[in-house]
Amino acid sequence: LDNHPGNYPSNSHFNLNTKTSERMSSSSGDTVIWPYDAIPEPIYQFDDDQMLLIEQFQQREDVVEVLRDDDRDNHFQIARWLNARDWNIEDAAKMYIDSQNWRAEMNIDRIMTEFVNTENFKKLHAYWPSSHIETSTTSMDGFPVFYERIGLTDPRPLLADIPKEDLINYTIYQSERREALVREAVLENQCYSGAVWIQDLTGLGLRHRYMEAINIVKENNSIKANNYPEILKKLYVVNVPRIFSIIWRLIRPSLDPKVLAKICIIGSGYEEELLSFIDASQLPMFLGGDKPDDEVVTGGGSYTKTDRKLKIKKGLKATIPAGTIYETTMSFDMPTLLSWQFKLKDYDIIFAVRTEGDSEDLYNSGQQAKEEDAITLEPGEYILVFDNTYSRFRSKTVEYKFTSETIEIESGDDQYSYQNVLKRSVESSEDLKRSRSKKKKRKRTKSKSKQ
Predict the structure, then answer these.
(1) How far is the C-alpha of 275 from the C-alpha of 297, rounded, in Å?
(2) What stretches of 359-436 adopt beta strand conformation (E)?
(3) Closest CA to 156 of 4, 371, 392, 447
(4) Neighbours of 392 (CB within 10 A)
């Protein structure tokens, strides 16, 4: 172990997280935009050093006290915790013990037996557009493939109807079921491997730039990284729109480095890659396969919520007389996502974001102002305005709250930077257009030669 407990054994096959920033282009001109690694091969046998660490882990007194029954003779499962902490046995043991304590604190058995019978669970299970255990498919190596289409969700009314606690409980429920499916595949195939996850971002838009939803995603990421390690083998993100660059910079800090290294963002032209490890009969049609979409992913679309009114926690109030405006200023030293919530007792109002001296507003709602929205801002000072100048007689009372979230600044040489992704995405799109144009020309040439 090179006399260092944190190092991998020199002949280890466990470095599943090799990182590369090179683009992969196929003969058809399709381009992977960021970063690409082939899916790691399953590992069927550990070397002597690895087995020694696994046995030492299982025999530690502090681990034995909390060791799950289904982990006692499962060296593949124990290897997940060791790999998650770079084979440092002390760190891996602490992670495992902390996770077992978390399971007891969260009462996982209650979530799996009681929460599943609640009305909120049934709503989420019917609405959330992802594959369930019953509808997941299998890759050619015998491991599960999970799908999600988060762009089809409507986060604001969903979060207004379902409390955060139940959203977290649903994530735990899904993680438990998915981990169990991976465990079954490990035992059946007798190898160390994991699931592939495909995230289709078709439909992702401004409504997803919602800080409350993003914060829940970040919390879910932390839960998965700390309690379900190394279940993921590869994550493909496909059909990436421009808005994802902002959302990515907000979510990225919450992602475990080992998860980051397994992410492959493909703008388009991903069918060949996916079909290289998933049979067409197992891949849904929306990704270029033959399996009917509704046999894999259902749900999504507009969310019909109950009559639950917007609640603003720790908000401020202002009364704006007829024919006047109400202003407040905010300044930011870093790129920022500014979000707001407000509600009026009666009537309507204009909300605007502007800078001193500019003739045009950066944001202007018009009279049909949205109660919740967000805008990305560069460093500087901004004026936030509630405008009631168009009203001749009525004053308006508004309850409001502004929140800001710093957007991570990324360097150009950072392999996880999104700085150049949009440029690459454009290049990818142009590559595809050129490829299709060439194919059309070849078809026309063949047609002329036949004539």
Answers:
(1) 18
(2) 363-364, 372-377, 380-387, 396-406
(3) 371
(4) 7
How many CA atoms lie within 13 Å of 10's alpha carbon, on the beta-carbon side? 4
What pairs with residue 352 in β-bridges?
A: 364, 385
Tokens of 84: 């998650």
Q: What are the angstrom distances between the C-alpha of 425 and each of 72, 354, 404? A: 47, 31, 28
Q: Say whether pLDDT at 14 is over 50.
A: no
Query: What is the 8-class DSSP label of residue 291?
Result: B
Question: In this predicted model, what pLDDT tens digit does every residue of 386-443 receive, in sequence order?
Answer: 999 999 999 999 989 898 888 876 555 554 444 443 344 344 444 444 544 554 555 4
Cβ atoms of residues 390 and 367 within 8 Å: yes
Burial code (b: 16+ CB inside 10 Å, e: under 16) for 280-305 equals eebbbebbbbebeeeebbbbbeebee
Scanning 252-307, the segments in alpha helix (DSSP H) are 257-260, 271-275
User: Which residue, 279, 265, 243, 268, is CA-closest to 197?
Assistant: 265
Q: Would you mind telling me the total number of residues written for the chain in this entry? A: 451
Tell if the pTM clears 0.85, that is, is over it: no
